[in-house]
Amino acid sequence: MKKKILIPVLALGVLLTTVSFKGDFFEIAKQIEIFTTLFKELNMNYVDETTPSDLMNKAIKGMLADLDPYTVYWNEQEVEDARINNSGMYTGIGATVRNKNKKMIIIEPFKGFPADKAGLKSGDQIIKIGNITISDFEGDASELLKGTADSNIKISYLRQGKIENTTLTRGAIDVHAVPFYKLINDNVGYIVLSKFNRKTTLETKAALEDLKGQGATKIILDLRGNPGGLLTEAINIVNLFVPKGESIVTTKSVIKRYNKTYKTSKQPIDTEIPLAVLVNGRSASASEIVSGGLQDLDRAVIIGARSFGKGLVQRPKQLTYGTQLKVTISRYYTPSGRCIQALDYWNRDENGDPVRVEPKEYNEFKTKGGRTVYDGGGIMPDIELKTGEFSPITTALLKDQAIFDYATDYYYSHTLENWKDFSFTESDFQKFLSFLKTNNFEYETETEKEFEKALRKAKTEKLDKEIQASYEQLMTSVDQAKEKALVEKKHEIITLLSDEILKRYFYRDGMYNYHLINSPEILEAVSLLNDEGKYRNILK
After folding, report:
1. pTM
2. All residues at 6 or more sequence positions from 511 whose CB lies less than 8 Å from its CB, including other chains
3. Which of 217, 274, 330, 408 is in Cβ range 3.0-4.6 Å of 123 for a Cys bridge?
């Protein structure tokens, strides 16, 4: 029985209507027709059974792979997830989960929401939802956690080697863009901005006005770890502190209709209040629009470490059957003219890797008041602190869940009653290093991945026996370098370990309160804002 081929025909209509404006209509139509006939013949004649949807998904991923990592195809569920993320509201259990390799792990239950009320904790492995065993489920098991408000769900989970059971009631989950704000020392307002969704400006404005009402005469805006979000919200945040009509960001593209300058359009809340903005290596996209705009307009002092460097703008494009293409449409530039994109995906090196600009090649720009700033990827702070950096070894530890798993181990082996009593000591750090070795954490650097790829290639060419000894010696050297890097980046790693541990005991409120007393970036910001002469001198 012949298989019906529907997807390419639908794709043809979509592509012709969305890209024909680029001009080369014949070449586009020709390539789509080639693909359509290939897809049909492959499905009808291949020696083994094929699944059209799987083939198409792989074809799409292959087509996008050599562009940039932000141009992606979203299926129906991913479209819905993006909508929820941007709205800040959804119905569920109120926890972030990691669903990978047939395992579902609770990453963080939110205080006061269903998962937390039911007793679930970070590190719990959900093994059964209702009558469905996670390890047997095909597809995205996290979908099983969703449902209508007030519906009950039975969950079995594994905690410290023991199976536990609980029942929770799904509810409306409100994810705050501003999860925490507080008055420090009677005159400094501190605001954490964790994401840029549709509630960001509303919540930030409310926090700012409340803090000013409490007596704040100076403000710290914390964008550390903020991955970004909606462009319009970033512009509106800057608008809280600068006058109406200021240019905040310009987008440039080969497609003329995407070339646009975005300006502030509303009356500000306060254009004079001294302002410090905190960023680190995980502050990206919309966070960089805010920090870069305020820096270029000489409206705030930026403190921390160079930000991530994502200067590319995406826009979702509707496809058929509820799917979307999130496509990079332009680069964005700060008011001084800087593009803060760190990696050039269109001019790659001889290995096909995106090019990173060397510091000696950074270009010089001027702020509104004449200060010198540079491009080169990310926003460079006016006051740079090493504790805010985000190094490759730390990235590897986070990616392989080493920091998360150690925090789980710490939580079940330590008693802590008050966040004020917490201190991650040198002894604790040595225990962390031992934990990595004892549990055989294979946190893998990009260098190791490339070496392993080379060895696999050598095996196909029958060269592995000759180079095996050299390879093992090389990997030993890499391991030694990793151990050295762990020690060199100790303060950076301790910061992340402390955050993860504190959340286990005291939720995010406890973590943020701990930051107010112990974070080098916050302490530096408070000191600067209380030194009017130094603050003004930096912004001259």
Report:
1. 0.86
2. 419, 499, 502, 503
3. 408
